[in-house]
Design a protein that fits this description.
The protein is of the alpha+beta class. It has helices at residues 2-18, 29-34, 52-61, 90-100, 113-122; strands at 27-28, 39-41, 47-49, 71-72, 74-79, 85-88, 108-111, 127-132. The chain has a four-stranded mixed sheet with strand order 7-6-5-8. The protein has a two-stranded antiparallel sheet with strand order 1-4. Strands 2-3 form a two-stranded antiparallel sheet. The longest helix has 17 residues, at 2-18.
Length: 134
């Protein structure tokens, strides 16, 4: 039993290590559009820059009233219990659905490897992986 607990702790520690690139705090689309060099700072101290063309594309995909509510980067949540990824949040799901050509109006969607690949190709700097342990 102790070996299982030790293995679980080791896995959780490795997952935390994988997530150290995540921003200390995310910024809204409206904030980023006002910056000369739009970026967030990761927990590891690195600077994650956003490409202007992606920010402008996102600004066109959702109403301007929603720009302050959209926090970037959009997280693609990878869990150990599913073969796909989860996207959470009304605006985030709306954007992902538009990129993928889907019509769902959920606040949470699951996407799989082919769709993840498309999403990352379309929005490489405004999306990030987050690894979860349940």
């Amino acid at each position: 039993m102790k070996d299982i607990d030790r293995a679980d702790r080791l896995i959780k520690k490795q997952i935390l290590s994988l997530n150290r690139h995540l921003p200390r705090s995310r910024k809204s689309l409206s904030e980023l559009l006002k910056e000369d060099k739009p970026h967030v700072t990761g927990n590891d101290g690195t600077r994650h820059r956003f490409k202007w063309n992606e920010l402008e594309r996102l600004a066109k995909l959702i109403p301007e009233d929603d720009h302050p509510r959209l926090k970037l980067p959009i997280y693609i949540e990878i869990g150990s219990d599913k073969s796909g990824a989860r996207i959470s949040g009304r605006l985030e799901c709306e954007i992902v659905n538009r990129i993928l050509g889907s019509t769902s109006s959920e606040n949470e969607i699951f996407i799989y490897r082919p769709d993840i690949k498309i999403l990352r190709m379309e929005l490489p700097t405004t999306t990030q992986y987050i690894f979860l342990v349940r």
